[in-house]
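Re: the multi-chain job from yesterday

Posting the exact lines I submitted so nobody has to dig through the queue logs.
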Amino acid sequence: MRLPLLASLALLAVTPVGRADVLDGTDAAQSALDDLALAAVARRVEAGQPQRAALDAFGKQLRSPEARALWEKSVARLSAATSFTATAETLGTLRGALQQTLALEMLAAYRAGDIDVARQARAAIKLPKHASAVEGLLALQRIGGAEDQRAEVARLLARETLVWQGSRARERTDDLLRLAKAGRATPELVSLRAAEIQALTTFPSALLAAAKVTGQPATAVSPPGVDAASIAAWKASIEGRLPDLLSSDEVEHQERLVVKLLRLVPMEYRNGVRDGQIAVPLEYREAVSFTVQAQQLLVEVRPNWLKTKSAAMAAHGTDLEGGFVTLEETIVARGELASVERECKNLSALLQDKFGVSLRKAGKGSDVVQETALEIRSLLGQSLQSARTGQWREANALRLEAYTTFDLEIESRILPRDPDLATRAERSFLDGGRDGAGIKAVLDQHAQGAALEAPYERTLEALDGCVALLRVGLSPTTVSITAFTIVLREGLEAVVILAALLAGLRGPENADSRRQVGIGAFAAVIVSAITFLLARTVISSLSRYGETLEAVISILAVIILLIVTNWVFHKYYWTGWNTRLRELKDKAALRRGQRWESFAMCGVGFLTIYREGFETTLFMQSLILEGGVTASLTGLFAGLAVIGIAGWAIFRWGMKLPYRKLLVVTGALVVTILATFLGSTVRLFQTIGWMPIHPIHGLEIPTWMGTWLGLYPSWEGLLIPFLGFVYVGIAWLFVRWQGQRKQAAFNTYLQTRREHPQPEATPHR
Amino acid sequence: MSRHSLSLLASATAILATTTSLVRSEVSNVEGVKSYLVGTVTKMDEAGHAFVKDANAYAAIIDAHHGEYAKAHASKQPEIDALVKAMQEDYKTMDSYGYETVEGIVGGVDSFTHYDRDLDAGVPQTPGAENVAEIVLPLRDGGKIDHQGCLFTYIIEPALWGGDKRWVTPLDLDGDGKIAPRESLPKVEVVLAAAGDVSKRLDALLADAKAWQPTSADCIAAMITMTPTLSDYFEDWKESRYSEHASGRFYAVSRVSDMRGIMGSCAIMYQAVNPEVAKKDAGLAKSIRSGFQGITSFLDKIEAREKAGARTISLAEIDEMASQAKEHTDKLVPQIEQTKALVEKN
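And the result, structure tokens for all chains:
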């Protein structure tokens, strides 16, 4: 019976793990320290030679001079210890120093570009039970090697380590206090633990510098006695040593988040657990995760509170911690909903009444990401709940609200960091991807059970990934490159088509049309600028309608493009005719056509620019908040310069082409842009729920094809642009047939004139 | 840990070196986890049916003596002793060497958790109690056992080892003229009802295990649920070393065996997702494997010290050992959460 189980454990032991590395060295050193610590607390004399060898060997493996110096200095103290208590104290110091050494080694390896060693050192660091370790992991995974992001990722890794060490120090201190209260604290145990805690809270200056933490280094604290009172007093001194990692804005933001999480926990729990059983795993896990997250946030805030809210901490700190422990235990045991609600209510009241936590929203830029993510989670939770009760319209409306919030506040920020993740997250709200259907798709299909829940889970996972990555700040270079890319992506197609059209409108006879296009384009630039200025005031309050506005603009742009396509065909066909024909055209019809043409030219100028300008302004707003005005504007102007040059080059090149050839190029461009507009308009319609979505399972279309060509793997997304091509084909055939009829009529007319000469009259149509 | 399990442990370890490649193919993916679960539950189910048979044979002897346990024992002592022993072995196969080795999976995978509640983890109904086992056993004498806790921990084990007076008839079994605290025979109606119920539940668990379509996400979620429980087990172990009779339950085998079982099934699940994790972060994968190994070595160390005799362990050592063990498991939990992020978000 137990063979496979034991074999499995053994297999883990014999699985090849490669040459000895930081992890092997740490394991050996840790194990040596544990053995020696057991001997010391048991007052047993241990020769300790193999253990000492393991400690020395670990030191020799270290590549960072700072890490090695710290470790060797700590190991050297071992020989000087002459009593069990002194040995225990040295061992405790070594335990703490081991963690600081690993942190230094991780940072040094990371800065040297050795990501694998950085990962090993990071994985070797001890973690507190509720450590949040995903953000650093994803930062290393996704942007680990990027030169321009290195300082920011190092900052994240260092801060993460500081939080872990601080949390572990607190856990160990509480444990020591419990031992003392139970009368089980011996001098050796106290020396061992107190020295470890002190070493854990003695952060190397290089680590603090990497985390960009300012302030004085912690001063030494005298070790406590074995009695509970002495340890309690010592605990307060130790907590005072923990670095305050947060700015006042961040503290306020974290506090607010805790209260929001406490509001959400009972909602998730109510949906997730019924009669002591997990009814909806997703909701239950959210309740657990929100509780743990709230505790983690409080750990981070604690050093600041000890300074700024010391009276409240002294009077209510224990109640607060105890309340969270009870809440977590109740949730884990799947207890009564009423108990969970009561605990959350009490904790919220405690935070607001005694700690002065306010729900008033403040903060800027990336500060709001976590809160936004929380809102999105809540909206998605409500959407799932509505879908489960068959309220599909409501579910879709909530999904759309969640999506627009995501699009505006998170997707725009995540794009420069990880475009694939941004696309995957976006698609999970809509049609889905390789890993399954998206939320919109399952809502359209009225899916039930696991099929309904799976895309919600995937979306939340992707959202977590986004939030984790957004903890890494953006360097100015990345901000500029992002702004440049946005402008290039959004502006290039508009500028290309306009330049080609202007080249096609050469000659004095088209001066009016050129002017109309120019007026439209100029107006669009002005309106885009106004949109930009209003974006954070008027538009942000209308943000949920952003996609709808874009859809309306897009459909107008498609109509205009259809008109332009027709115009190009006529132009092409007529250009091949002799000038006589043009002279003999129906003057009245021409005038009517020119009026229509003028409107179309002005419209195409306006809409092709504004369609992209609208989106660009929203993206730029997010980027400015994230990375500052200077870096964003540098990228913006660089992008404008490049598309300006590209437009001018196309215009010049077009002027040199024979007119008919140019019209072919222009026609091809217009048709391509039309198809792209149709594809992206279909996507927008699907996003806002004006059109259903039927994903094509198994079909993967690269992200760039969606961005640049408007191609997305749904039946509607592919068929409708195709129908656009069909329309263009029919329109071309119609123009040609019409032209041939006119040509035939004209030939007949000429023939008649030749045979029966008479004064010139208006030709037949 | 019993001699039986120790010998199993020893023989298993000896075979390991030659069976590594076989096991590699067995649990190199999530289907391997299912095979392991189905294999284990099949044996538990067989033991469940054997328990029904043994309980019926035991009932037949007691009934033949008109329900007079003392008379039955006096006239059929070898048969009764053998049947009680057989039922105890059935129990060990179902629970200590069966359920405990898959508890990490059954208790962690959402669709199975009600089995964990009703078989092993659910508590009796009391005001404000949470995770109450949904066990109601109608007894043939017209009474019923109504929400008195889960089958293994609160009913069968106390009935077979005399841990709960409601389920046993105290009796001077060794004829020394005194009735020691747990000296008793299980009540027929209790073992019959419990055997019938546990057998049905194991049939159902087996059917569900066979129908299970495991995913990496299932395994990771189960590990995230179950790994933290090891910390509580170490705490239990620590307290039980201070006061051997403090808990009043867990008589069959040591708590160390339970810890090994849970840890083992978590290790099996991790092994199934390890290749995916190692591809993305070899350091993390290696650290988790090393974490599982660390806990195993630690359990070996504890077991060796227990075997040598509790008196050789000082109280300070117990505190230090429990603290080291807790640190091992505390580190594993966030690490497994990281694997979730790696496997599901990338």
